[in-house]
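**User:** You know discrete backbone vocabularies at least as well as I do. Would you mind producing a protein record, from residues through to fold? Write it directly below this note and I will take it from there.

**Assistant:**
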Amino acid sequence: MWKYVFPGIAMIGVVFAFARFSFGLFLPNISQSIDLTESNAGFVGSLAFASYSLALLSSAYLIQKYGQLRIIKFAGWSAVIGLAGIAFSQNFSSLALSSFVAGLGSGWASPAYAQIVGSTFKKKDKDSGNTWINSGTSFGLIISGPIALFFTDHWRLAFILFAAIAFVVTLWNSKIFSATNASDSNGSKINWRVTVNKAKFLLCASLITGISSSIFWTFSRSYLTAVHEMTNGESVMFWVLMGASGILGGIAGGFINKFGLSLAYRLTLVFMQIAIWIITLPGVLTIYSSGILFGISYIFMTGIFIVWATRIFSDSPSLGVSLSFLFLGIGQSIGSTIAGTTIAAFSYPFSFTLFSLIGLIGLLVPVERLVEDGS
């Protein structure tokens, strides 16, 4: 199993932490170099979400047409090209195009790996395999944080380094997975009405989690510098700790198998909302505890969604993961817009408290017995 999990972890780290999330870490320096306005920077960020959503929507079709092994290569090369493009961008247009290309890989990779795990791994290893591969985002955040500190004034070199790492990881995946006997997804036509109805509880849970977590991903560092008056280095350390703690999300598969999907989902949801709320409490200990707890619970939760999706769609795991992550992303897009409005109208503490309460609505979402048993 681990022969395939390790390159999977590396690829998820590349396409999420490097190609999708690192833009925000370097945004002040990028804006100064290319003379971006705040609206231009926001548009570039929205393009990354748009490409992620487009990739998720197209992943089921592309996996059926080209096979999951080839889609993993597509994901890797989109990261390489996009990251290199960002590194050499001289204006807003080239930066926007490069950001769009870089974001595609994050939407293609997770469904493709879910399909490979579903068709290649033994039944007892599937949940653990999926959740450990999903934890790759945390490993990527651990690497990107120190790079952001070291290359603060040389962001182009950082993105060249990201592109080089992405290149090596893509070659590694190409070598490992070309030797597998993973079968391609079946080519049956998808009935979207039946499919969405089948996954309605999963999609509700994903949407609510996306909304509640959005304020943390988008505004936690701003909160730390604006309200808690942390330095840039201290806020980046908060980011690194959040990423490092997320590695524990890899054990989600084993936890689910021992305690059940329903209990795992509800406990993780509660801990995530606690993490979102306690950042409002003054003190270094509570602030860093918030980041650590959020890192663990967020990666744990996305692992739970992958397991939930693959149990519902055992014949086409990539389809379930695509839909779940799409609704998670939609929730984050909606939530970020609402959070910005409430922060401007009220305050950071009010908004973080409000979003933690919104997240608790997810406790009302049922987990079907059939899915919880994995049968």
Observations:
- The domain at 1-187 is CATH 1.20.1250.20 (Growth Hormone; Chain: A;).
- Residues 38-66 form the longest helix (29 residues).
